[in-house]
Amino acid sequence: MTAQIEGQGGEPESAPRRRYPLVHPLTISQVMEITGRSKRTIERWTSQGLLTPYELSHPREIVYVEDEVLDVEHRKLQAKHQGRPRPRGAK
Q1: Does the reported pTM lie above 0.70?
Q2: Does any domain span residue 58?
Q3: How many domains in the chain?
Q4: What would the pLDDT profile of 12-71 be if each residue is shown by its tens digit?
Q5: CATH number of the domain where residue 62 is located
Q6: What is the separation of C-alpha 13 from the centre of its chain, rounded to a whole number of angstroms?
């Protein structure tokens, strides 16, 4: 399931302009590069509802929101390290 974001020219003149927050869209390849995760992992996060894919209309492409990707990666790393004993001398 993807959300649809229409670019300019995709809406009738009489329709009010939609405003979207400024985001940095990332392709799945860029998400893989930033997180160091496989395509399968990104697809699994998407199917679990952790990431929302957006479909751009021009050019037609599926992208993810950078802040959301970084948030999911941060939560995954926190969960991984939660409960581990602290190194000696760590405060």
Answers
A1: no
A2: yes
A3: 1
A4: 555 566 666 667 889 999 999 999 999 999 999 999 999 999 998 877 889 999 999 999
A5: 1.10.1660
A6: 31
